[in-house]
Design brief:
The structure holds two protein chains of two kinds. Chain A is of the alpha+beta class. Chain A has helices spanning about 15-20, 45-50, and strands at about 5, 25-30, 30-35, 55. The chains are: A alpha+beta, B alpha/beta.
Chain lengths: ~60, ~400
């Protein structure tokens, strides 16, 4: 299962995309974090990184 | 927008705008792309910048973005001991990044670069291992733009370099999680930065209070996400709740990722150059990246324009940028990275001890990668800190 983004908590910093080893996260137009389910390996690094606690297990 | 340019710069932060401006000034036809609809927003920055940095970059301070003068700093150890230094002249600014970033993009446009906001790069064009352009998405349309040189200045979330085959991934041990409130607060000194250290306050990082005026400040935190028990937001909220800033109004909320590793070894490939956060060109001890990115961008832009003029955008030619940058900044940033590795080995007791034996000027010098021999000697006095001292040798 890919990671899930809590849009109420996300502040669009893009750090999750920077630490994602699978290039699975896109910061669409700089605002909306989109996780590519086909690429996400559920490694959880984005969750450990997120300063806002906005990415969780699905 | 044309179908092809000499140089396409991805990302209009300070690094990208500086690269675009420099390349245009040196005669290249330049396109500068920014995925956000507003250059500079949302900010991901504590907004401190030294007077020396601005002078070195040749950028004139402008009241539109130089919002508050800074004359010194208070550095507070975990036990509460405060090291305070106030200089006889102004040493820094707290800037308004939204205005500053736009200003740099404007300077790039005035130099002749074409600037386009809300154009997201979603892929690169390649012939073999050589980068030949980018795929752009804008307003729901997707199209290709060719370039002799592509510059990846796409920040901490950089993907351009990785699409091109350069591993610019941020490892968790080398990237800090940051959270910040711009708050209306009662400040003791609106011309002094405040920095708070401690492993329970901010593991691997610190809390900052950077005044933006008489009664407003960026109150933020950077922590190592992988060495902490909770989010940066949770750590910051806890610190504020126990501070004199409790209850202050919040006029902006920011988050960010701060690269605190060593700069990347590989800064160029065939047809591609990396600048700024994308190249991990950041001061690893204080986390500032504006100066480093802008400085590197000036060199990158000039070399890109030279490469275009000589019809040679090979990795070999573009390496001139990497070599020049390394000779000017590489050693300092490597030293600062070693300092970071030493500091993260220190317990709160160790930090309290340092606060007793150091002068505040020392701490400021350390942050610039200077006087590290003195720090190593002090650490050597304590047997359990020899490992930390060795990081500095």
């Amino acid at each position: 299962m890919p990671r899930r983004v809590d849009r109420n908590a996300c502040l669009s910093c893009g750090g999750c995309a920077g630490v994602c080893p699978s290039l699975a996260i896109r910061l669409e137009y700089g605002y909306r974090v989109v996780v590519d389910a086909g690429r996400c390996t559920d490694c959880g690094l984005c969750t450990v990184f997120c300063p806002a606690g906005a990415i969780q297990e699905a | 927008m044309q179908e092809s340019y000499d140089v396409v710069v991805v990302g209009a932060g300070p690094g990208g705008s500086s690269t675009a401006r420099s390349a245009a000034e040196h005669g290249a036809e330049v396109l500068l792309l920014e995925k956000r609809s507003e250059i500079g927003a949302p900010k991901r920055c504590g907004e401190g910048l030294s007077v020396r940095a601005l002078a070195e970059l040749g950028i004139e301070a402008h009241p539109r973005w130089c919002v508050n003068g800074i004359w010194g700093a208070k550095i507070v150890a975990p036990g509460g001991k405060s090291l305070e230094v106030r200089y006889p002249e102004q040493v820094g600014w707290v800037i308004e990044r939204k205005m500053f970033d736009k200003h740099l993009a404007l300077l790039a446009a005035r130099a002749g670069a074409e600037v386009r906001a809300r154009c997201e790069v979603v892929g690169v064009l390649k012939q073999g291992s050589r980068v030949t352009g980018v795929v752009v998405e804008s307003g729901g349309e997707r199209f290709e733009v060719e370039a002799k040189v592509v510059v990846a200045a796409d920040g901490v979330e950089s993907k351009v370099a990785r699409w091109a085959g350069i591993n610019s991934l941020h490892r968790l041990e080398d990237v800090d999680s940051a959270y910040q409130y711009e708050m209306v607060v009662e400040l003791e000194d609106s011309d002094m930065l405040e920095l708070y250290f401690g492993n329970s306050i901010a593991p691997r990082g610190y809390v900052w209070v950077f005044p933006k005026g008489e009664d407003v400040a960026n109150v933020g935190i950077g922590i190592g996400g992988n060495v902490s028990q909770g989010t940066a937001k949770a750590y910051l909220d806890r610190w504020i709740a126990n501070s004199r800033y409790r209850g202050g109004s919040v006029i902006e909320v920011n988050a960010g990722a701060v690269p605190v590793g060593a700069p990347l070894e590989k800064l160029v490939g065939d047809g591609i150059m990396l600048v700024g956060d994308a190249a991990h060109q950041v001061n690893a001890i204080h986390g500032g990246g504006v100066f480093e990115a802008t400085f590197a961008g000036r060199i990158a832009g000039r070399v890109a324009a030279e490469a275009v003029r000589q019809g040679d955008a090979s990795e070999r030619f573009l390496s001139r940028y990497a070599e020049e940058w390394r000779s000017l900044r590489g050693e300092a940033l490597a030293r600062i990275y070693r300092l970071r590795r030493a500091v993260e080995k220190l317990s709160d007791d160790d930090l309290n001890y340092l606060a007793e034996v150091l002068e505040p000027e020392d701490v400021v010098a350390f942050a610039n990668g200077e006087r590290l021999g003195k720090l190593a000697k002090i650490l050597m006095r304590k047997p359990h800190l020899i490992l930390a001292a060795k990081e500095l040798m």
